[in-house]
Amino acid sequence: MALEHAILVSLLEKPGSGYELARRFERSIGYFWTATHQQIYRVLRRMEGDGLLDVREVAQRGRPDKKEYSVAAPGRAVLTAWLHEPVEPESLRHELAVKIRGAAFDDPSALISEVERHREAHGDRLRRYLTGERRDFTGPDAPRPLDAGQELQHVVLRGGIAFERMTIAWLDDVLATLHRLRAARSGGRD
């Protein structure tokens, strides 16, 4: 997937400025497709030049005017074509998993703090996902009923929640294995 497609999806969900789009990438769509502010602004300029986006100048009091982007008809056609293309199943590149396998040739317990750090990061992400789910989809202030766009956003978020839960369970298994190996290596003196 190109960044252009993620931008088109986000702008179809809600038009906005480059800054607002970058914030959305930090908050929601960025959990599944990351981009820096510079990448987003560079791609927005190119998409504008290619006629994929409409741009409206919005006056702001006490600040420079901002550009608000929305998807133009050619942009919607590009997204529609992309949505109908097959997508290959993703391969997972996981540096930590390779390190864990490589630990067999060193001291496996040396990885404990690194695996704990990863577990904490995934726990933090899971908490953010669950907070967003309560805020946007399941909590008392969430819209009822959800429209089609919200239903699809929620199903993607549920996939992220399931992935984080699975990753945490795997990291817990890795930690238990590393602790067991450390204990065996120290002759049970651990």
**SS field, number of helical segments:** 7
Mean pLDDT over all positions: 91
- Write out the strand line-up for the largest beta sheet, numbering strands in chain order: 1-2
Strand content: 5-15%
Please state the CA-atom Rg, rounded to the nearest Å. Answer: 22 Å
Low-pLDDT residue intervals, each spanning 5 or more residues: none
Can you offer a commentary on this structure?
This protein is mostly helical and 190 residues long. It has seven helices and two strands, in the order αααββαααα. β1 and β2 (63-71) form a beta hairpin.
Topology:
Blueprint: H1 3-13, H2 18-27, H3 37-49, E1 53-60, E2 63-71, H4 73-83, H5 95-102, H6 112-138, H7 148-185
Antiparallel strand pairs: 1-2
Key structural traits:
single chain; mainly alpha; two-stranded antiparallel sheet; 7 helices; 9% strand; WH-like_DNA-bd_sf; PadR family transcriptional regulator; WH_DNA-bd_sf; Tscrpt_reg_PadR_C
Please provide a brief summary of the model.
This protein is 62% helix and 9% strand. The protein is built from 7 helices and 2 strands.
